Amino acid sequence: MTAGMGSYEWRFDSGRVCLDLVATAEPTSRGCEQLDGAVTLRHWLVGAGLVPEGTPLRGVDAGWVRSFAELRDGVGQLVRAQIDGRDASRALDRVNALAAGAPPGIRAVRDEDGALVRALSAEPECDALLAAVARDAVDLLTDPAARARLRQCEGDTCRRVYLDTSRGRRRRWCSSEVCGNRERVARHRRRAALSRA
Predict the structure, then answer these.
(1) What is the C-alpha to C-alpha distance for residues 45 and 128, in angstroms, rounded to an integer?
(2) What is the CATH number of the domain that holds 66?
(3) Looking at the domain assignment, is residue 148 inside a domain?
(4) CA distance 140 to 117
(5) Distance between CA 43 and CA 8 in Å, rounded?
(6) Residue 174 falls within a domain, yes or no?
(7) Number of domains within the chain
(8) How much is the CA Rg of the chain, to the nearest whole Å?
(9) Nearest-angstrom CA–CA distance, 88 and 52
(10) Containing domain of residue 61, as a range?
(11) Does any domain span residue 172?
(12) pLDDT tens across 37-79, in order?
């Protein structure tokens, strides 16, 4: 799934919010950091579903950006260590410490049409949102079935980690529309070049 907000476009196709945060470590097409400031972090928080659209996020600042980047790096180390069969004890300690915090309180409220929608009980604090993502990582890494579905994208230029939820567990790319399409185009170009040679 892709979410566009203003001039920001995020992909949320990793299967878990913690993996979608890890995916922000991938540089943009311009080669720069995706979480490059408070505005982009605000958009990511809404796009990822951590906060409902319209939630005030006045407190988001450079400190929040640093904290989310640190969590992203820790979760990234953990999931890649899991895939590769390595140990990442320091990253585990950091993620566990963040997961111990309380996530934001939620409540149901009525929208303009009278339907129940999710809202936060108060304007979220950084630690509460970090706790929500860290808890998602702990849930993922302690669930043997989910952990066994962790995959590294096979795209030439992609390092995304995702959950393989395909029927035969043979999914090769984080996104068939993005990395899968790039691979098919590259394969076609190689065949065309060989036929010309």
Answers:
(1) 12
(2) 1.10.3300
(3) yes
(4) 26
(5) 7
(6) no
(7) 1
(8) 19
(9) 33
(10) 2-152
(11) no
(12) 999 999 999 999 999 998 999 999 999 999 999 999 999 999 9
